[in-house]
Amino acid sequence: MNKGTASASVSLQDIEAAAERLRGVALLTPLLGNAVLDRELGARVLVKAECLQHVGAFKFRGACNFLSQLSPEERARGVVAFSSGNHAQGVAYAGHLLGVSATIVMPRDAPRAKREGTRRWGAAIRPYDRASESREDIAEQIAGETGAILVRPFDDPKIIAGQGTAGLEIVRQLEQLELTADILLAPCGGGGLLAGVSTAVRELSPATAIYGVEPEHYDDHRQSLRTGRRLKLRTRISTHCDALTAPTPGEVTWPINQANVGGFLAVSEVEVRSAIRYAFHHLKLVLEPGGAVALAAILHNKLPVRGKTVVIIASGGNIDSDLLTSCLEETSD
Amino acid sequence: MNKGTASASVSLQDIEAAAERLRGVALLTPLLGNAVLDRELGARVLVKAECLQHVGAFKFRGACNFLSQLSPEERARGVVAFSSGNHAQGVAYAGHLLGVSATIVMPRDAPRAKREGTRRWGAAIRPYDRASESREDIAEQIAGETGAILVRPFDDPKIIAGQGTAGLEIVRQLEQLELTADILLAPCGGGGLLAGVSTAVRELSPATAIYGVEPEHYDDHRQSLRTGRRLKLRTRISTHCDALTAPTPGEVTWPINQANVGGFLAVSEVEVRSAIRYAFHHLKLVLEPGGAVALAAILHNKLPVRGKTVVIIASGGNIDSDLLTSCLEETSD
User: Fold this and answer.
1) What's the DSSP call for residue A282?
2) Which residue of A has its CA nearest to B30?
3) Which residues in chain A touch residue B49, judged by CB atoms under 8 angstroms apart?
4) B50 CA: distance to closest CA in chain A (Å)
């Protein structure tokens, strides 16, 4: 039984238990085929559309798995989290469902969609300045003052197990289609989604090669895998992928991902914007930049997929309308 | 057994047979819940996301059911269809899959997304001018000259049975959720989707009240139901709902819809644009105007839904980026 310590690992049983907790609460998101994508790539591509999950991102899974395991006494103390927006909304909505008050430490420049989505479910927002303040420090200060439980965005076994339920669903949905994935690609920020999904997929579908996808200047996992140790990047280059800017692999997630993941791929901002546009035109899905990196990776040939069955996770759809509009105005492809 | 005559009706068995033909070919589109929508309306709303169907609209279902029943000799003659774009793409893609050449009579002002989607699958486009030419005449001329089989957009039992497979899926998906719909709303142009879906739903879920939704100046079904006879509108007012501009209920579809449908609702252009914006912000789905009318109807209180389980069909997502952008720029709600 995981106790939430930093060194605890996550098992398939933890993910299955999380799936039981989330049954009828989280959505079973579709695994979508698309004829245009298949023809263009010469592959069988299936899109796990987590942008259709409650709050528009997979993050509700982990947050709900975590909050639903709090004791009545812990629930009464409330929770605190730091997040650029999707974990924020996930914690806020889980708190709303379970009657747990939530405070979210959120950057002042978080997308409007994410700020509104967090407020919608009754969470209090504590804004901070990304350049001058530490969100971890603020969150720990709030926890210290109020007794609120800190809900980490990825580096926690309960969060990882919750995100892993998406992987469990993928395997079962593939079984229904009588398919096995040759390749699975998931976005990677702190690595929570990837750690959970890869744990489920590696155990249940060992033939599937698993890749993480990062924005090109936030490729801390790719560099860490290359060097064999957790690197911390100090990049100051801006990215639209606000969901994927964690500077270093998680302490809990990294050993899992190091064991499960075949490699990491990086995509450029231009490639991400092109993928958002592609999702609009052909998938009819609204994707945010961080949710579009896996699609960007296969559209821009970051690995060979011809003849393969490929699952990509489209992890979130919380994009502001002005950014989507600017992506749609580009006509380079 | 239906023979395609104008007076033939469509049975549940026809729809079940169509579902067998479409198995593994059409997509089982998701029936999506959404917590934001539920809270705003005080209802349990489920969105049948046909925008995620191949070619971005339900139309592939009917086209594929029709084409797959052609004899080898008929297949060799090819098919011809007239359509503002979604039936066009449906016929084109079904033709591509089955090796049947297709010619589509399509208005010069059809959305770019629909023209490109039709060409993508190898169909020939015969453009026409909506003000001065009759698409039916052009299609019949092509059929006469080439021997091509005419694939009507809605007024054919095989087309209706194909579209009805969406209704069959809805009922089964509701069963899996242990729900029964109190209300179902479907967009209505010629009435093919509504006729097929209502046939399945009325038989399998008789307690469900079924409504068709039309653009306000194209409410020929609403007016026909009121007067008890098929009216033909001569409206010249433009609408963004290019998929729903058939001026009169179909000969085959009307008796079915008259028997099955509890009423028709009409929505304004402003309400449709607001629904497209809502789908972007909260559902993370790309909807075209004609695909958003059922959502518009519940968002704008065209019937009481509080406390009800409501299914809406989001029938298509083929919207050009400039129109979506203009919808997103409006901030009236």
Assistant:
1) I
2) A30
3) 30
4) 10
Which residues of chain B have a Cβ shorter than 8 Å from any chain A Cβ?
27, 29-30, 32-36, 49, 51-52, 54-56, 93, 113, 120, 277, 280-287, 317, 321, 324-325, 328-329
Query: Does residue B42 sit in the same domain as residue B69?
Result: no
Whether B84 and B139 share a structural domain: yes
Q: Into how many domains does chain A fold?
A: 2
DSSP-assigned letter for residue A138: H
Q: Please indicate, yes or no, whether residues A279 and A166 belong to a single structural domain of this protein.
A: yes
Q: Are residues A36 and A49 in the same domain?
A: yes
Residues A7 and A86 grouped into a single domain: no
State the first-to-last Cα distance of chain A, in angstroms, to the nearest integer: 50
ipTM computed for the complex? 0.94
Cβ-contact B231, B220 below 8 angstroms: yes
Going from the C-alpha of A315 to that of each of A82, A175, A243, B80, B155, the distances in angstroms are 19, 21, 10, 41, 40
Q: Which residues of B touch A35 (CB under 8 A)?
A: 54-55, 93
| Domain CATH code at residue A66 | 3.40.50.1100
| Sequential pLDDT tens for chain B (333 residues) | 333 333 448 999 999 999 999 999 999 999 999 999 999 999 999 999 999 999 999 999 999 999 999 999 999 999 999 988 899 999 999 999 999 999 999 999 888 888 998 999 999 999 999 889 999 999 999 999 999 999 999 999 999 999 999 999 999 999 999 999 999 999 999 999 999 999 999 999 999 999 999 999 999 999 999 999 999 998 888 899 988 988 899 999 999 999 999 999 999 999 999 999 999 999 999 999 999 999 999 999 999 999 999 999 999 999 999 999 999 997 644
Cβ atoms of A85 and A170 within 8 Å: the answer is: no
Which residue range forms the structural domain that includes residue A131? 59-150
Do the beta carbons of residue B151 and residue B184 sit within 8 Å? no
In this prediction the pTM is 0.95
